[in-house]
């Protein structure tokens, strides 16, 4: 099970995630209380092991700006949470994780249009696209047309429900941000508990 800890804002938080066994860490470059600069992300990333993949989260970023940020920050993956088109993705040379807000089965029909490394199913947008701490109806993701080997699950996950989510959806990876925070800061105990629960039974 691939585990991504998103919304990393400090080297300390990044190291917490790495020490707990995270496979990926996420930097948010879209409007969010967890937003970081490309320079901050680069500085944090340089202090972490190379095998931990660095993911940049974007929402409707102009392609030239996205490519500049990806270069500056030293990103391994690009995660898109906006209204990006299949053609937009073709302009990105790095592997892409395309996020889809899931409110009904119809929302899942878009997946087939996108050629990307992973699909990420998330809760419907609230104040921000992603990172809102609410879960969607996981039964909507039971469609046999969804390739499980390319599927990430996000939205309202925490150590108490991630195992159930994995059993119901069978994703290749899970993505968490607010579910491992206390008072809006990454919590080492919650990070450990989440990763332990997510990787149980591997």
TrEMBL record:
Xref: InterPro entries: Aldolase_TIM, PRAI_dom, RibuloseP-bd_barrel, TrpF_fam
Protein keywords: Amino-acid biosynthesis, Aromatic amino acid biosynthesis, Isomerase, Tryptophan biosynthesis
Any GO molecular function: phosphoribosylanthranilate isomerase activity
Catalyzed reaction equations: N-(5-phospho-beta-D-ribosyl)anthranilate = 1-(2-carboxyphenylamino)-1-deoxy-D-ribulose 5-phosphate
KW Coiled coil (keyword) present: no
E.C. number(s) listed in UniProt: 5.3.1.24
Annotated pathway: Amino-acid biosynthesis; L-tryptophan biosynthesis; L-tryptophan from chorismate: step 3/5
Domain N-(5'phosphoribosyl) anthranilate isomerase (PRAI): start-end pairs: 3-196
Protein's UniProt keywords contain Isomerase: yes
Any GO BP annotation: L-tryptophan biosynthetic process
SUPFAM superfamilies referenced in this protein's UniProt entry, alphabetically: Ribulose-phoshate binding barrel (SSF51366)
Lineage: superkingdom: Bacteria
NCBIfam families: PRK01222.1-7 (NF002300)
Stated family: Belongs to the TrpF family.
Protein name: N-(5'-phosphoribosyl)anthranilate isomerase
Source organism of the structure: Terribacillus saccharophilus
Gene label: trpF
């Amino acid at each position: 099970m691939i585990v991504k800890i998103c919304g990393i804002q400090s080297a300390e938080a990044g190291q917490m995630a790495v020490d707990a066994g995270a496979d990926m860490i996420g930097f948010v470059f879209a409007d969010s209380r967890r937003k970081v600069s490309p320079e901050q992300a680069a500085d944090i990333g340089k202090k972490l092991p190379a095998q931990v993949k660095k993911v940049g989260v974007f929402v409707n970023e102009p392609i030239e700006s996205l490519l500049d940020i990806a270069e500056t920050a030293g990103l391994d993956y690009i995660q898109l949470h906006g209204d990006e088109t299949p053609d937009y993705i073709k302009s990105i040379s790095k592997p892409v994780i395309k996020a889809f807000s899931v409110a009904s089965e119809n929302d899942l029909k878009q997946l087939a249009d996108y050629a990307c490394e992973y699909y990420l199913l998330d809760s419907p947008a609230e104040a921000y696209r992603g990172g809102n701490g609410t879960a969607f109806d996981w039964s909507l993701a039971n469609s046999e047309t969804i390739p499980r080997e390319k599927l990430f699950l996000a939205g309202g996950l925490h150590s108490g429900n991630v195992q159930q989510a994995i059993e119901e959806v069978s994703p290749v990876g899970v993505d968490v941000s607010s579910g491992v925070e206390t008072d809006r800061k990454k919590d080492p105990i919650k990070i450990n508990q989440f990763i332990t629960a997510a990787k149980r039974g591997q």
